[in-house]
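Continuing the series of single-chain predictions for the mutant panel. This is the parent chain; the variants come on the following pages.
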Amino acid sequence: MFVSVNASNDKIIECNQALIDALGYTKEELFALNSIAELYHPDSLSARDAIIREYKQKGVVKDREVILRKKTGEKLYVSFSVTAVKDKEGNILYSRGIWRDITKLIEERKKLSKLNETLRAKNEQQATLFHILSHDIQSPIRTVEHLSQWIIEDKDNVLTPASLENLSMLRVVNKQAYRLTQDLVSLFVNDLMEVPSIFDLLRTVEAIKRRVFLPEGFKIMVSSSISTFKTFNFLLTEVLYNLISNAVKHHHNPKEGEIKVEVENQGKRLLVKISDNGPGIMEHLREVIFEPLKKFHGAHNVEGYGMGLAIVKKITDQIGGKINFTSIVGKGTTFYLSWPIFDEMKKAR
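Parent structure:
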């Protein structure tokens, strides 16, 4: 659709048949309009004002989306480009404009936006459902763990050595089932679109202690200048769980094991440090530590499926964070996590 507009009075002085057909006016009706502004829909007047300002500054505007109003009152979505025709002194005589119908493009955008909203809602619903299912599975697993431990510790236990051995094997398999459910939950959230919410550091770490079957004597300490902050709550929980769980299950001396969680506010990001006094990571393994299905310590009694650090890396990359580490063999490892936060932070008391 082509249109020319007089620079002095803003009236249409020429147009083509495509414009006439699209808007439903006759050529005479278009020429009789007091101003071309009458063709703009009220929803698009502010956009037109911005176009006019740019046009006066540069003498040209390209591909600006606006809404026209047909003679019937219906909306017509168009992409607008205009150039100025000037005299020898540089004064604008009239403009040459092109309107391209983008109604189908706008409709597709609306459909895509609606689809994205639906997918986000389904993602959150599925995550909630998955958590419920995971909890319902893990609760009996934890019950088996506690009951079997009490049976083994019973001083009047009359079980045969073979039965006690079978009971110990049952506990190992039970823990493996628990780890598998945790890995499945973490893998599920790799593509989860999470809305930021308030994260409580101390409460989360206490919950993680219960999830990892913390051995007797194993200590987890928290040091932070802030106690709550707004971030991707569930995803950070899964990252912390996997880092802490990994440090616990690979520790060479659990009765003297220590993990320290330190959080430092760096403005729009947090620096989270997870330090342990475990066996450390050997030099030749450092390049592949975040790869999935890798078990680095070679111990047959270490539970899990080698997914923990791979899950941490995927989630961290997903939200635009960073993770790296330092390690000394025989003395321990420290993971450094750069994690985004938003407003509404509160100082720790």
